[in-house]
Amino acid sequence: MVGPSRPQFVLFGSSIVQLSFGNGGWGSSLSEIYSRRADVILRGYYGWNSRRAVRDASVQPSLVIVYFGGNDSMGPHSSGLGPHVPLPEYVENMKKIALHLKSLSKTLRIIFLSCPPVDEVRLLVHSAYFSELVRTNELCKKYSDACITLCKELDIKVVDLYSALQTISDWETACFTDGIHLSAEGSKIVVKEILKVLREATDWSPSLHWKSMPVEFAEDSPYDLVAADGKRTLNPSTWNFHWESQWD
Predict the structure, then answer these.
(1) Considering 73, 84, 119, 181, which one is annotated as catalytic?
(2) Which segments cross the bilayer (predicted)?
(3) Catalytic: which of 14, 20, 114, 144?
């Protein structure tokens, strides 16, 4: 017994997901925000594309946040190898993922993250390590737009990462650690966009926004820290933590 059962939020995707618990990442931020409310589970796999994702087994959580597109959108290699997935197949793969998740439960909630932009200048520096590496914002936008269009067709919530990350003037340097993967600043934008979707999802019952979810062990306990007056205890669930104000 390690506490009561609680909702599970699964983050499913490629390296943007795998690295989301490091470097002030968006996954670790969500885990902190939802402490005592939900378990944030990491299912991120470096280098994965949507083709591999459709073969993966799924659990039945309360929320699944899905990201694929960055690796898919890379240009094709002349050998036929590599992570590239043609746009029509990418859309079909994402549709398969969405429909499969929808089939698991009527109460399962889904959010897709679209393909983000990249810092093309820094990518040129790293391109020497990869044969025929092609990753451009023109390609990223095509896959992002396709994901957004699909989500509208399937009535799935979506975060437009391609646009969201470009809302700050120095996004190329501020949002990425290497031109592709998210920095703490980039992750902060992702978290805010996800929380915005959850806050505005008034058709989801119960709400999965952190302020609307019950807190575990919210009742007073004689085992909590004793107040200065020595007559009562201080319930930690009522404390205001330093991070809460930034996610209002």
Answers:
(1) 181
(2) none
(3) 14
- Report the distance separating Cα 118 and Cα 172, nearest Å: 7
pLDDT of residue 228: 83
Residue 105 annotated among the catalytic residues of the structure:
no
Q: What is the DSSP string of 23-85?
A: SS-HHHHHHHHTTTT-EEEEEE-TT--HHHHTTS-----SEEEEE--TTTTSPPPTTS-SS--
pLDDT < 50 regions, the chain: 1
Q: In what order do the strands lie in the sheet with 63-67?
A: 39-44, 8-13, 63-67, 109-113, 157-159
SS3 5: coil
56 catalytic, yes or no?
Answer: no
Residue 88 CA to residue 146 CA, distance in Å, equals 9
Active site residue 14: yes
Q: What is the reported pTM?
A: 0.86
